[in-house]
Amino acid sequence: MIEPVRRIDAEVVPFLARGCAILGTGGGGEVYTGSLMSLQALEEFGPIDVVTLDDLPDDGLLMPIGMMGAPTVGIEKIPSGREGVVLRDHVERLTGRRVVAAMPSEIGGSNGLLPVAWAAQLGLPLVDADSMGRAFPELQQVSQHVVGRRPDLIVLTDVHGNLVTLGATSGEWAERVGRAVTVAFGGSSAMADFIMPVGEARGAVIEGSISRAVAIGRAVSDSADPLGALVEAVGAVRLIEGRVVDVERRTTGGFARGTVVVDGTGEDRGRALRIEIQNENLVAFDDGAVRACVPDLITVVDAVTADAIATEMLRYGQRVAVVAFPCDPLWRTARGIETAGPRAFGYDFDYVPIEVAGARA
Amino acid sequence: MIEPVRRIDAEVVPFLARGCAILGTGGGGEVYTGSLMSLQALEEFGPIDVVTLDDLPDDGLLMPIGMMGAPTVGIEKIPSGREGVVLRDHVERLTGRRVVAAMPSEIGGSNGLLPVAWAAQLGLPLVDADSMGRAFPELQQVSQHVVGRRPDLIVLTDVHGNLVTLGATSGEWAERVGRAVTVAFGGSSAMADFIMPVGEARGAVIEGSISRAVAIGRAVSDSADPLGALVEAVGAVRLIEGRVVDVERRTTGGFARGTVVVDGTGEDRGRALRIEIQNENLVAFDDGAVRACVPDLITVVDAVTADAIATEMLRYGQRVAVVAFPCDPLWRTARGIETAGPRAFGYDFDYVPIEVAGARA
Fold first, then answer.
1. Which residues lie across from A242 on neighbouring strands?
2. How far apart are CA A356 and CA B136, in angstroms?
3. Residue limits of the S-Me-THD N-terminal domain (chains A, B) (predicted)?
4. Residues 6+ apart with CB under 8 A from A273
5. Which of A292, A334, B120, B219 has the fewest CB atoms found within 10 Å of its own CB?
6. Domains, chain A, ranges and CATH?
7. Which chain B residues are Cβ-neighbours of A166 within 8 angstroms?
8. Selection from B168, B169, B162 nearest residue B186 by Cα
9. Cα separation of B91 and B89, whole Å?
10. Residue B295: is the preceding peptide bond cis (ω within 30°)?
């Protein structure tokens, strides 16, 4: 049973950050920047409320927000902090309706934290939900797309204040055009996507994501055996423990793509795990066999602290453990797998749930 | 003295097409598609009115329209014909104001003709004006940018009905983001840009462009010496007559770029002219010396008919004449030259007016 989070203040941020990093599966942006921006905004504007959909008026707008782009760019090109205000004002001007709450588009990585900073500045509550239950690289890889909502109102902005409003005919077109805009913006953009009335959000978002992230963060932080606590908290399979012996990474087409190889140590000596990356960890191969794959979560963590390591922070020599755990049931529906399963990323094999693939070793 | 055009019907279209091709300096898209679409729309919806700014209410919106992208793409990926309606409806929805007239963003090439088709379908008049007095490759190379208007409302759409609304912080950002969207759309987009109230358009557009294009077209069509008539109609310098001996062309970054070499024949035997292209003819070099350059107009025409040849239609062996003539005075202001002079295209030399450069031979 996860304790519901009702407020985020400076005390909660470190737990949220640890949890978001773990749910980020390497993506969503390294949590350091997002943590600092959240702490600063909370100090300036006070704690923010975390609410459920039931706490909000049905006709108010729910605004999912986050950064789009390659996390390798995000390390150096940080948000201005004004993005939340620019997005909210533009959405209200376009729709003539009031935004009553914000929500992280993705709970994973810095994208689970930046909405805290933006909400504090906006004086808005955050809904205890997100659109992924993790992080995914592409715009259409969200719960709203899976349940069939159209991407008819997406707003992107950059640090200069350029503003793009996109009404796309499909999720794939939204990704294609949104990615091009993000690259033109210099590799990252702040985005509000799939904006909708609160009354239409139930079933179209993944509820409880903030509470879950905080619970995972607390479990890992409070334990003398952080890795064991993590495995227990998320129901993970340990894929390998070892050392990073190879990292190949490039920023291309608006994504960070690459591979990392972990060479087993201790009980895993003699084995190696290769992980393929598109912003997030997509697939883990063990001697050519799939041990875990999207939409399930694959996270590389520090072997001692169990702190997740973002894909853009992977380095030769790091001592790590790789864990994998089940995605939200929404992603295991036919359309969920079509949207974010292995074939959606160009792999020529079918999704195998971690409960099956992870046990094959 | 140019005869003002007050109506466009099927009789006028061929003259308009010839004039637009000549003013296109190779760009704006080959006029064949635009002519056919105009003729079809005029047959279906009847002739359109051509009006002056004085004929319109000051608070109505003037909507400049045209296609953006590489003309090499435009040959194969033709408009759906619905673009005008999609753009107008979206502009009215966004602004809450009524569009009272359309205008070609650029009078050059097919972009001088497509607005006829769209206006006919919309039941709107066309203003006898455009934003260039010719064709230019980049979004910010328009009169509105030269006079300091901000690109705060640009709408782009594609054949699928995807819609992007852009509010940019500068003309350069508008070009950068608009180009990225156009490439994502598959290499071409239909655009309404620098939409403004009629009352603010005076001085911000180049008036008389449609009448001028039709007058040029008539002059060339009515003469037994089309090339002579063209030279007289626009006050052109003949740069060379000869044969196309080399064409190099590639579609890259949303533009058609390349060079064409014309080898002199007759009196010009022994000379060669090299023209550098970015959608439009930018600079004509004669043995390394600049004989004509942007923002002045350089047009390659058929040696016999004086029909302009679009850059994407240049072929080895064509018998051509190359003429150059002065741009609108707006482009010879400091900000005009900064926006569309040689240095704006990366050349390391200053603008030399055709009256000077053309006489150097």
1. A264, A320
2. 60
3. 13-166
4. A239, A240, A242, A261, A262, A264, A284, A285, A286, A291, A322
5. A334
6. 7-209 (3.40.1610.10), 226-360 (2.40.390.10)
7. 162-165
8. B162
9. 6
10. yes
Residue A260 has pLDDT above 70, yes or no: yes
> Residue B228: how many CA atoms within 13 Å on its side-chain side?
4
**Residue among A80, A92, A93, A181 with most chain B CBs within 10 A, to mutate:** A181
CB-based contact (8 Å) between B80 and chain A?
no
Task: Give B-chain residues touching A177 at CB under 8 angstroms.
Answer: 162, 164, 181, 184-185
Q: Which of B75, B110, B27 is nearest to B281 (CA)?
A: B27
Identify from B82, B91, B152, B165 which residue to disrupt to test chain A contact, counting A C-beta atoms within 10 A and taking the largest count: B165
pLDDT of residue A115: 97
- The Cα of A166 is separated from the nearest Cα of chain B by a number of Å equal to 5
Lowest mean pLDDT among A204-213, A248-257, B111-120, B132-141: A248-257
Residue of B140, B181, B185 for testing the chain A interface, max A β-carbons within 10 Å: B181
Q: Does A162 contact B185 at a Cβ distance shorter than 8 Å?
A: no
The interface pTM score, or ipTM, of the predicted complex is 0.86
Q: How many CB pairs under 8 A join A and B?
A: 59
Span B298-347, pLDDT tens digits:
999 999 999 999 999 999 999 999 999 999 999 999 999 999 999 999 99
Question: pLDDT digits over B71-108, tens only?
Answer: 777 777 778 888 999 999 999 999 999 999 999 999 99
Contact B177 A184 (CB under 8 A): yes
Indicate the residue of A168, A169, A184 with minimum beta-carbon distance to B176. A184
Quick: pLDDT tens for B156-186: 999 999 999 999 999 999 999 999 999 999 9
